[in-house]
Specification:
- The protein has about 240 residues and is an all-alpha fold.
- The chain has two domains: about 80 residues, Arc Repressor Mutant, subunit A (Orthogonal Bundle); about 140 residues, Tetracycline Repressor, domain 2 (Orthogonal Bundle).
- About 70% of the residues lie in helices and about 0% in strands.
Amino acid sequence: MYICASMKQKNSLDSPLKGRYITKHTERSVSILLGMNDFSIYYFAETAVYAKSKETTQLILEVARNLFIEKHFADVTINDIVLGANLSKGALYHHFSSKEDVYVMMMLHFLAQIQTSSEQVTQTSSGPCRERLHMSVLKFLELPEELLGVLRLVRRDINIFDTPIRDKLIRAYQAAIPLPVESIIRDGIAAGEVKAVDARLLSRQLVGLVEIVLHPYSRSVLGGTQEIATYIIDLFFDGVAAK
């Protein structure tokens, strides 16, 4: 999923983009395109520009992600982003209206990636609830560090923004992590594997356990991702009472 400016429909084939695609391609490509009608040439021109726009947007989002993870929101400037992406300010403002816009789109973009990963377990796994939750936690722990950094930003920065933006980020976060977990827990309740208590509350409690062990100290104590996932699921289902 890419979050980027959508292409505007053109009403005329006399666009300034017409022919620009041809000049950037090899002689062989030119000879092929010259045999096409104006609409085909225009289509390829628009496709090339759209692909370039998508690449630029992705680059900006990746650079912004790294900067916002490294520094607080207030300490990151538009200059930092354009320098990191090796772009002009004009190129950035072609895609985004402000630093806040970059931040919000960056968060939505990468939270959507996390959501896709989480939903793979929800939609494809089968078996007991405990096993499915173990798979879900393991999938979470194996996310790339930069995506885990995005999740940390949710808690760190959420109160910086006004209510509409804050609510949008919260909904994206919930769709990425708690809601897929909640779906598995609901299945467990329906199957009699989990007590019939509030599935939403249980899912947030499990996610809270996962977020705690993301700290380096927890990893040094508990070991690798398999061991950590087992620890979390055992704690969630069995508690800490000595047997």
